[in-house]
């Protein structure tokens, strides 16, 4: 009986650890990595359908300039940035809460063009 318990315990542990090995950490999208990797993809999927000719222009290669020169980003007071405020306000449903957090992280990092 003891042997059986040990065997079952071992099997359980083996499968348990296997499950851990197979656990996949969700791919990026959760944290800010760089403007090109984390932020531009949000613009591409959620914004450029409207913002290719409308300010701020959010198309790849143009978006960073457009946001900085247009004054949409305030690195000394990130949360008050009009880009972020817009996403909390009338554009609330345009992108996910997680994406808003990524955009805020980017501004807090100094809004680099990286
Ligand atoms: C369905 C079309 C549409 C989509 C998608 C869209 N926008 Fe807009 N956006 C507009 C329109 C129209 C305005 C101008 C009217 C207003 O301010 O709401 C605007 C205004 C803005 C403004 C304020 C511009 C200013 O000069 O005051 C910002 C910032 C902005 N959008 C950012 C974004 C971001 C970031 C996304 C993607 C997450 C996005 N928009 C997605 C249509 C859209």
Structure description:
There is one protein chain. The chain is mainly alpha-helical. It has a domain at 35-108. Helices cover 52% and strands 0% of the residues. The protein has 5 helices and no strands. It has helices at 2-22, 35-46, 63-69, 82-88, 97-108. Helix 2 (35-46) packs antiparallel against helix 5 (97-108). It is elongated and about 75 Å long. 18% of the residues are buried. The model is unreliable at 22-29 (pLDDT under 50). The structure holds heme C. Residues 46-47, 49-51, 54-56, 72, 82-83, 86, 90-91, 94-95 line the site of heme C.
Helices and strands in order:
Layout: H1 2-22, H2 35-46, H3 63-69, H4 82-88, H5 97-108
The structure holds heme C (HEC).
Heme C binds at residues 46-47, 49-51, 54-56, 72, 82-83, 86, 90-91, 94-95.
């Amino acid at each position: 009986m003891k042997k059986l318990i040990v065997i079952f315990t071992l099997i359980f542990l083996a499968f348990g650890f296997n499950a851990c090995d197979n656990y996949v950490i969700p791919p990026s999208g959760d944290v800010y990595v760089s403007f090109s990797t984390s932020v531009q993809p949000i613009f591409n999927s959620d914004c450029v359908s409207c913002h290719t000719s409308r300010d701020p222009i959010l198309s790849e290669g143009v978006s960073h300039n457009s946001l900085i020169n247009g004054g949409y980003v305030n690195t000394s007071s990130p949360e008050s940035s009009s880009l972020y405020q817009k996403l909390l306000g009338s554009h609330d449903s345009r992108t996910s809460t997680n994406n808003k957090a990524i955009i805020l992280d980017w501004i807090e990092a100094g809004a680099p063009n990286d």
